[in-house]
Amino acid sequence: MQKSQSALSQQLTILSATLLCLVFTRLDEEEEEEEEEEEEEEEKEGKEQEGLHESAAWPGGLLFQCSSVEWSGMNNNTPMFHVCGIQHFQRAGHRHLNLFQSTYYVVVTFSTVGYGDFVPDIWPSQLFMVIMICVALIVLPTQFEQLAFTWMERQKLGGSYSSHRAQSEKHVVVCSTTLHADTIMDFLNEFYAHPLLQDYYVVLLSPMELDTTMRMILQVPIWAQRVIYIQGSCLKDGDLARARMAEAEACFILAARSYADKTAADEHAILRSWAVKDFAPNIPQYVQIFRPENKLHVKFAEHVVCEDEFKYALLANNCTCPGASTLVTLLLHTSRGQEGQQSAEEWHRLYGKCSGNEIYHIVLGDSRFFGEYEGKSFTYASFHSHRKYGVALVGVRPAELPEFYEETILLNPGPRHIMKKDDTCYYMSITKEENSAFVVNQNQNQSPDQPPKEGRWCCRRNSFASRCPLLL
């Protein structure tokens, strides 16, 4: 953006210098004309004829009188070069043009077919205009495009999310000290993977300017209509007001990964969280920090993700249960399950297909997967549902728990837990039950205590249907 602004200021400087050159050139011409009027009529006609022969012999000789600023600004100020050129060429003709007439002639010629009230009457002027029109057809569109792009970028930097859109549309604000393409792309892909968030808009609020990669990302059609960038700081109430923080559905504060000192990065994130809390106390905050000891400072946030705490816990569990880190990583990242399908290795295809598994939940009484296991133990329901439907029941939240444990999810509670109608089941599958279609080849008169027969289950996600095994 600084380069584009400097280029714009350079063009304006050259334009101003060219105008001054033309004005002083015209003043010199007026002084010369006054001196020529004092001379005799015969000498005046002789000088005009002599000048005509010289211009016919070498048309470029008159243009050499233009200043070096005009020649250096030909690419940046082509219309002003046209004005200067046609004015100097016509000095050798029978009809002289002043600055206003030259400007009027060039503007009318470029914008229309020309009115014919001012026309060049010598062939050097006519040839000059033909060449300049061809040059203008090449140079002007590029210059106008750059000028429009610069103006739009400056509008975005100093713009705001309109209050009308904030009232009629839903948006979230993402605050970060720096904007990295990988971090923003991961956030956007995971955020819009949820079907209920497709109508939300994302406002990026950062004091840093966009780099080339981020500009290219925001110009992609899928993000251009959803993502809005505003340059500003969370520490300023004016910038928070421009982002309509008070009307936002949520605020995401991302930690700066470019900082070598993780403590300093946490300090920036905490200060921004405090500023948002002071400006909009009722807005849910999702804060990302690095150090576990800093969680205390943002305990008011809706959710706090401590990266170091999560990473070390994952590595520790991976030592006791090999593959745990891979399983959790695949569950956290959204995948369609189509990766590696072109590989010649069978395990590549199986790994890619099973990477599309995610965690879903459903009430037991409303489920066709687990509804038949009401009154059975958790282990019985988990084993037979995986054998029958290819899903893995990993946890349950009982409907009746003490007040202190109301939001507790029991992971693999074992055979002691008996499934009830109001229990919430958490299971891993390629897609949630509501989006799946299955046909079970099972006799309706078969006893529930007998082992279920194999069924055929097919899931559909993004118009992709396949047999959906689960990698355990």
From TrEMBL:
- Bias category Acidic residues: which stretches? 29-43
Superkingdom of this protein's organism: Eukaryota
Decide whether keyword Signal is in the record.
yes
- Catalysis performed (reactions): K(+)(in) = K(+)(out)
Pfam families in the cross-refs: BK_channel_a (PF03493), Ion_trans_2 (PF07885), Slo-like_RCK (PF22614)
Specify the protein's topology with respect to the membrane: Multi-pass membrane protein
Q: What is this protein's record name?
A: RCK N-terminal domain-containing protein
Region of interest called Disordered, as start-end residue ranges on this chain? 29-52
Query: What residue stretch is flagged as signal peptide?
Result: 1-27
* A Gene Ontology cellular-component term: plasma membrane
Record-level Gene Ontology MF annotations? intracellular sodium-activated potassium channel activity; outward rectifier potassium channel activity
Family annotation (InterPro entries) = K_chnl_BK_asu, K_chnl_dom, K_chnl_Slo-like, RCK_N
Looking at the record, the residues that make up the RCK N-terminal domain are 169-305
Which keywords are on file for this protein?
A: Ion channel, Ion transport, Membrane, Potassium, Potassium channel, Potassium transport, Signal, Transmembrane, Transmembrane helix, Transport
Q: Which PROSITE patterns match?
A: RCK_N
